[in-house]
User: What shape does this take?
Amino acid sequence: MDTEIKLKGDKVIAQIPSIKDKALRINLNENIYGTFAEIGAGQETVRHFFRSGGSSGTIAKAMSAYDKDFSDAIYGIEKDGRYVTESRLKRMITMEGELIEKRLSREKHPNKMFFSYANTVATIDFAKQFKGHGWVGIRYQIEPDEDYNEIILHIRFKETDARLQQETLGILGVNLIYGAYYKYNDPKRLLRYLYDHLDKDQLEIDTINFSGPRFADVDNRLMSLQLVKNGMTDAVMFDPQGRNILPAAILYKKNILALRGSFRPVTKVNMDMYEKSLKMFLEENKVEKENTLVVFEITLSNLRSDGEIDERDFMDRAELLCSLGQTVMISNFQEYYKVVEYFANYTKARMGLAMGVNNLVDIFDEKYYRHLSGGILEAFGKLFFRDMKVFLYPMLDENGDIITSENLKVHPRMKELYKFFKFNGKVVDIDDYDPKILEVFSREVLKMISDGKPGWEPMLPHGIAEIIKEHSLFGYNPMKVLNENNLSSDC
Assistant: This one.
C-alpha cells in the first residue's frame, strides 16, 4: 500500500493512505455504489476511481453537464441564475441520489449503500483576478436501510493555475468520499483528513455542514470553529439562528459595522455601543439600512483558555449573541487592519468599527506591528485607506473621569499620527451613550457569576441572565449563590 508518512522529529505520528489507495478501498467495498456529477473543473474526482481499479463495482454513472442549458434541463434553473451555489449542489446530489433509488431495485441490491457525490466549481479566470471557488458535497448511506447523510462544504482556491486547481479538487473529492465512509464517527478528524495530500496554501474550506442520522449530534458551529482552529480558513460566520453561513454570501457589497470583543458575557455596554454606533453609521453618506450588516466578531485568541480553545466557552458566547439577533464572526485575526482587509475582499462599500477607548489605544501601540516591514504605518494604511471610520465609545477611568477621543493618551511617538486620523474624521466619538452603565465591565460580571456574587443580572441585556442561569453558563452555580447569600445573612 502506498502511504505518506508524517513525522514529528524522528517519530512516525501517522501513515496516510495514498489517494489511489483510498479510491481503491472504496472500489473494493462491494456495497458502496453511486454517482459522480462534476461541473466546472473536469471530472477530476471520478478520474481517481477509474484509474485505481475495480471501479465498475462502485461507479453507477459519471457525468459533467458543462453546458448551462443542459445543466438547467437536468437540474432546473436557480432563482438567482447562478450555477456555483449551494442550492445547485443540493439539487445535484438529491436528484442523482433519487435516480439511483429509482433505477436500481432494492430487492436485487439489498446490501448496497448508495451515494451521490457532486461538485460545482469555477476555477481561476483568464485574467487571474478571481482565483475561483466551489461547492462540494456527498449524500450517502452507512446502512442500506438507513436514511441519507450529507456533508456539504464550500472551498476557495489559492493556486493560480486552473490545472492545479482541478487536481486539488480531485484529491479533495477522494478525501471527502473516503472520510464519509470510514471516518464518519469522528467528524473532527474527518475534517482534518480532507487535507490529506493537500496543503492549506492550495485550498481554503470556509464553510461545512453535516446532516443526517449519523451526524444528529454534530454541532455545525463547532465544526466551523475547527476550520478556524485548524487554519483551514481565517473566519467563519453564524446567522442569528445560529446556522453556519458563507461569509462571501452575506458580506457581498454590504456596508459593514463590526464590533470586536470577548463578549464574556455580552453586557449592556456592548449593546449600547452597538445601538449608538449603528445609529451614527446609518447617518453616514451612502449607508442604507437595508444594505447594512452588523457583525459581532470574536477573535480566536479570545477563545483560548490555558492555551487551548475552550469550545464550551465559545458556544456560550455565540449562543448569547445569536439570541440577541446578532450575526457572529469567529476569526483568526489579531489586528484590526486584518479584519478590514478581510471585509474588503467582499465589499467596497462603507465600513465602521465600533470600539472602546482601550481598544483604540491598543491600535496605536507599535508592538503589534513589528512583524510588518512598514510597521504601524503599513498597518494604518491598510486600516484606514478604505472608506472606514472608528466609532469610539467612552471609558470611565480609575479617577472617575470620562475618557473620549479628545483626552485619551497614546504613546508620545504616536500623538501626531493619532491627530492626523482624528483631524480627518476617521475617529468620531459616540456622544449619545448611557452614562449609567460606564462602570459595567465584562470581566467583573464574569467574576461575579463564577464566584456566586449577587447583583450581576441588571448589567446584562434583557433575557441574557435567564439564559446564563438556565444553562449554567460561565461557571454559574446556583449552589454557590445560595451559599454566598447564607454567608451574607450571617454577617
The chain has a mean pLDDT of 89.
